[in-house]
Amino acid sequence: MQRLSLLTPRFITTIPLSLCTSAISTTHNNSMEVEVKLRLPNAVTHQRFSSLLSPYHLKTYLQENVFFDGANSELSSNLSVLRLRFYDLDFQCVVSLKAKPVISNGVSRVEEDEESIDPSIARACVAEPWRLLLIDSSRIMRRVREEYGIGEKGLVCLGGFRNVRAVYGWNGLKLELDETNYDFGNNYEIECESCDPERAKHLLEEFLNSHGIPYSYSSVSKFAIFRSGKLPQ
pLDDT of 61-120, one tens digit each? Predict the structure, then answer.
């Protein structure tokens, strides 16, 4: 039986190739993700917003985001991003494919497809990206192979960044307050996924203005900031 050697932060093990058919455990339908994205200027405004929302705090996640592209930039040249997101070290991992992003006036729209993946297998794929393409049970990886024409050894790891995400339930909205840690600095952002983004943005702006918290509309994604190598002005 052909076997895969899977590397994790703590140990080396081997898993039969056939088990990769069950690496994906939970699927989510491909959909359009619509989010309000407001950027906070610094750590002081981030902390102030966090303190004001503390009665509505639900949970906080530690996220690690790792990105991949084809060896010939097959994904990025088609405005697509393949990402592994680890939650709270290796408690959970989600693989996602995002495409055709548009962000305007603080509202982001992007096509998104997501699946949960076994964290130990995902760690092995960070070390050796071609292993992702062997997960036959993954709808997303089938799309990467078939729609983007990426062959068996055609993925490369681009690196990534860490993010601390605090989640709040406020005014019927789910707010996500992010502190994103890049090698070149930190970025602070409020995100709110909504089917009525203009209403959500209006409520957020009213709240921020009433408490004298400065903000601006996010104009680029976290991934775009990562790839540029510098924080937005």
Answer: 999 999 999 999 999 999 999 999 999 989 999 999 999 999 999 999 999 999 999 999
Q: Could you tell me if residue 19 is inside a domain?
A: no
Any domain includes 224? yes
For β-strands 92-104 and 107-117, DSSP reports them as antiparallel
Is residue 22 one of the residues assigned to a domain?
Answer: no
What pLDDT, on the 0 to 100 scale, is given for residue 28? 52
Task: For the chain, give the percent of residues with pLDDT over 70.
Answer: 86
- pTM value? 0.87
Cβ neighbours for 67, distance < 8 A, ≥ 6 positions apart: 81, 82, 83, 84, 157, 158, 159, 160, 223, 226
Is residue 165 pLDDT above 90, yes or no?
A: yes
- Within-domain flag for 157: yes
Task: Return d(Cα 180, Cα 196) in angstroms, integer.
Answer: 26
Report how many domains make up the chain. 1
In the chain, the percentage of residues whose pLDDT exceeds 90 is 83
Q: Say if residue 198's pLDDT is above 60.
A: yes
